[in-house]
Amino acid sequence: MPDPSLLLLIPAYNEERRIEPVLRDYAQFFGTHYSGKFQIVVVLNGCTDDTIGVVRRVAAEFPVVSALEFKAPIGKGGALIEGLKLAMHADLIGYVDADGATPPHSFFDLTDTSAGRLRRRFALAARFGFAPGADKIAAIFQPGFHFIVEMLFWLHIKDTQCPCKLMRRRPWKKSIRRCASPISRWM
């Protein structure tokens, strides 16, 4: 039985120097190890460099890679919301950052639904150590931020800011309606 269909979003802002190996690694790894339909969509967020050229070059070699480009900056959150709008037919929807901090095998571990990792509708990774190219300054402040979030919200999640998340389609469909709605409907 094939794995569930999977959409992987990678928000990107001026990542021409570091996104190519990330895209190649993910496309090669999932092409070999994942039996379900797999797609990578890079959501370009107001890039002023040649990130789109790099993504197109990789996409020519790996058809599972594509781009969604926004010329004006919409922020990382905006890029994720726009990318999530593409996920109507994916069973699993995930995202990672373009810096390569989450290697493909780590994201792949989250997709193992038979292991029960998605029992609660979503799975979050947690960072241990530093990956080449990762934002080390942000990681230094992570323990303090985690303490504050835990004290305020009692989420019992070790790394709420880890840029590696995976969710099932059903809860995503409920939440995307709110994300796409005007802010006044939230209040």
Q: Short summary of the structure?
A:
The protein is an alpha/beta fold and 187 residues long. Helix content is 39%, strand content 18%. The protein is built from six helices and six strands.
CATH homologous superfamily caption of the largest domain: Spore Coat Polysaccharide Biosynthesis Protein SpsA, Chain A
Proportion in helices: 25-40%
Q: Rg, please?
A: 16 Å
CATH architecture level-2 label of the largest domain: Alpha-Beta Complex
The topology string of helices and strands comes to EHEHEHEHEHEH
Biggest sheet overview: 6 strands, mixed
In DSSP terms (H or I, runs of 4 or more residues), the helix count works out at 6
Features:
single chain, 187 residues, alpha/beta, Spore Coat Polysaccharide Biosynthesis Protein SpsA, Chain A, 6-stranded mixed β-sheet, 6 helices, disordered C terminus
